């Protein structure tokens, strides 16, 4: 009798199946023993080690050829250096001078023109890719003709369009019936160079979209056809959503190409006439190679890198938000 009373006085009968108490509580007063966490298995450790070894060379190359040059350029932009003598720290003087230089604003305006007009390349490349994505006779020859501008160097493209624009014997003068000094007029020079650059850039975007069209989900397209989708509705609601990663890549590559444009400007106008067609990349080269102002050139490069970073981060966030 006393035994049962003592059991009830502690807080009720302790049984194996009592609610709220674990069956193994027993002698430990109902306290459960926390399970010991198991570490990674030997197989998981080997997989991590293998992944690290595979990534290490690429990470090393990125650190040496991408990260370190960026850090070095940012550091160099705070110095006055001609490439031969000892660098002299001058703080933000290069950036202050840059903000008071009219050529900088001309180059910035031309970069904006390049950026706006160059974004025509992805939709034009998509249109050409949709046209070439057909199983008809002779389509391979047509594909090779559209692919040809991509394999040409920028110097060759610049020379071809320089002859095309020549007001004396150029093809444009023959078409119009009179010569137009496209590359010799400050009003038209930048637009003429951008038009020349769109030729290979459209071909590059076409290749990206041709590759993306091969990965489309045929079942979704067939289901949309059964629902009556065709033409623009098929393109807008079925095909373009599946091409979103390809579109992102095409836009990013096009933006980078527009902001780092250099070779065509160097070949076709040399930044002229009267520095009217210069851009930040050519302005940076001009200051470094012609005038030996390496620190000032580094400041221009940092500004150009910041502009690129803003655009790329913006489009990357848009893509990630759309994916979510």
TrEMBL record:
PROSITE patterns reported in the protein's UniProt record: ABC_TM1
Keyword Cytoplasm among record annotations: no
Annotated membrane topology: Multi-pass membrane protein
Compositional bias annotation for Low complexity: 16-25
Gene Ontology cellular-component annotations: plasma membrane
InterPro entries reported in the protein's UniProt record: ABC_transporter_permease, MetI-like, MetI-like_sf
One of the protein's GO biological processes: transmembrane transport
Keyword hit for Nucleus: no
Main location: membrane
UniProt-listed Pfam families: BPD_transp_1
Coiled-coil features, chain-numbered ranges: none
Domain ABC transmembrane type-1: 107-315
Keyword annotations from UniProtKB, A to Z: Cell membrane, Membrane, Transmembrane, Transmembrane helix, Transport
CDD domains hit by this protein: TM_PBP2
Disordered: region residues: 1-42
Highest taxon of the lineage: Bacteria
Ranges that cross the membrane: 50-71, 112-132, 144-165, 188-210, 294-314
Subcellular location: Cell membrane
Family designation: Belongs to the binding-protein-dependent transport system permease family.
PANTHER family the record matches: ABC TRANSPORTER PERMEASE PROTEIN, INNER MEMBRANE ABC TRANSPORTER PERMEASE PROTEIN YCJO
Name of the protein: Sugar ABC transporter permease
Gene source species: Paraburkholderia sprentiae WSM5005
């Amino acid at each position: 009798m006393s035994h049962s009373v003592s059991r009830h006085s502690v807080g009720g009968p302790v049984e194996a199946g009592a609610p709220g108490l674990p069956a193994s509580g027993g002698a430990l007063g109902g306290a459960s023993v926390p399970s010991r966490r198991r570490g990674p298995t030997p197989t998981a450790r080997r997989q991590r080690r293998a992944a690290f070894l595979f990534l290490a060379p690429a990470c090393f190359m990125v650190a040496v050829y991408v990260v370190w040059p960026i850090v070095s350029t940012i550091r160099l932009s705070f110095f006055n250096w001609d490439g031969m003598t000892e660098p002299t720290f001058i703080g933000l003087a290069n950036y202050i001078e840059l903000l008071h230089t009219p050529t900088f604003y001309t180059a910035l305006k031309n970069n904006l023109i390049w950026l706006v007009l160059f974004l025509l390349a992805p939709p034009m490349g998509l249109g050409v890719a949709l046209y070439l994505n057909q199983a008809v006779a002779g389509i391979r020859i047509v594909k090779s003709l559209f692919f040809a501008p991509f394999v040409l160097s920028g110097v060759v493209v610049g020379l071809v369009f320089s002859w095309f624009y020549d007001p004396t014997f150029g093809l444009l003068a023959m078409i119009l019936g009179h010569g137009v000094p496209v590359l010799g007029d400050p009003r038209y020079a930048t637009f003429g160079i951008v038009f020349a650059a769109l030729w290979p850039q459209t071909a590059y975007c076409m290749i990206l979209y041709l590759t993306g069209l091969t990965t489309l989900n045929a079942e979704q397209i067939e289901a949309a056809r059964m629902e009556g989708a065709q033409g623009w509705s098929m393109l807008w609601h079925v095909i373009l959503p599946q091409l979103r990663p390809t579109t992102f890549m095409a836009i990013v590559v096009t933006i980078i190409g527009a902001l780092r444009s250099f070779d065509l400007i160097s070949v076709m106008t040399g930044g002229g006439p009267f520095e009217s067609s210069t851009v930040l990349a050519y302005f940076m080269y001009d200051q470094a190679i012609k005038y030996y102002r390496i620190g000032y050139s580094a400041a221009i490069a940092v500004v150009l890198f910041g502009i690129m970073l803003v655009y790329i981060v913006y489009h990357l966030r848009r893509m990630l938000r759309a994916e979510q």
